[in-house]
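Can't paste images in this forum, so I'm doing it all in text. The chain is below; anyone willing to post the predicted structure tokens underneath?
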Amino acid sequence: MRFTSLAVSVLLSTTTVSAFAPKPFATRTTALRVVSEPSSLFSEAAATSTTTPASGRNKDEIAQELASGKMLEGGQVIDFAAVKGESKAEAALSSARRAVLQGTAHAIENELLGINQEVVDEVGHELGTFADAATVQEVGAYLRSKAPPGYFSEQMDGSTATYDTENEAKYKDIMRKAFEESGEVTSAFAKTFYLGTQLMSEEAREAIWAIYVWCRRTDEIVDAPRDNEDQMLYDLSSWEMRLEKLWKYGEVEDVLDLCLLDVRIRYPHLDITPFVDMIRGMLMDVPDLGQDRYETFDELHLYCYRVAGTVGLMSMPIFGCAPGYNEDTAREPALSLGVAFQLTNILRDVGEDARERGRVYLPREDMAKFGVTEEQLFEQRVDDNYRSMMKYQIERARKYYDRARRGVFMLAEESRLPVQSSLDAYGMILDKIEENNYDSLTTRAYTTKLEKFAVLPFSWYRTLDLSKELPIPGDRPFNQV
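Text version of the structure:
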């Protein structure tokens, strides 16, 4: 059984266990620091929007985005890809983009945008010091030379970097180091996510690291403390334009961009849309631009897509599909898994989000249905009403896990165990909430390294066709999933 030796090496390489879905692009780890007076871009956006200052999003704008979603097969998952409303956040980001393009503003001067001191401290050393700017451009040109003719558009100004074929070994060494540091960032911030990547091939593992680092950097851009909050929007709009240039021209600005460029070339079906959508998801958590309360589950579903479902869509081309399936057929299970992971994050962190960030992700209609109040969440009071509501939410989350499980057999064989083991390990958090008598206000649910290790044989068995006919006791029959 190949998974055994892999699992041992994985567990020996990790020190602690956290959520598989990277927590920073789930519920925010730090509230954005807002200056006492509204900054100009925030004020401009407010002037073009009818949103209330408290939420940044009004009912009409939310309804417009929800109506643009596409209900997928089964009626449980809504695909919100490329959905954009005329929101205060969009207005602010557009204003920031215009300012950057006109030269009246610019991104913060940082060699690695989105790699701040917190990231450096967590990793344990400076990043990207092994290649200067000129060398990065040489390696970028070298990578672009590996793409098929016409894969990238030519720069409008005709500018292009060159490379020396005699330096190919040097370029490959730089790429090795860049991917190595991407793995270090992934391991530092998402240990269980990193654990799952150890069960992949080297090429797939490095691709997932590159995607994670892009997501990590996006989160840091939004979350970093600043004296002027306009700067966040300048940074984020610059970051989005960098993404667009990488996709269209193969253009890079720093050494970590090289990893995403390499992935862009190796996986031609990788779409830019979920990356752009994730940026919108980050903005949904920004005070005065986003949304800190959710009236209905559909509203929360949009948030879940943008901050977690997008990761599933980014990963699909890397995982690959089994014969007879394609990314269209695997899309619904991939989005289901994103919703399942994000709901798990939210249910685990109800108390922490209320206490430390003043945020409530639980749909208000569900809270009212069970007689749970916001005051109760902030006061950390667990009663029968709260327990009943948590039972309801856990049952909902498990339905999405079941739908995601159907997609495991749609994946290429080598990708099934990493996904199934992640699904099983993360799903155990719901079991822990139940064991804690549904108290997610004062007690944090977590799973130990040993528990993660113990679930691997069951995960492996669930990837076999035999498990469809002979399910593990307690598993729902596959034809009922």
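The chain has a mean pLDDT of 86. The two ends are 27 Å apart (CA to CA).
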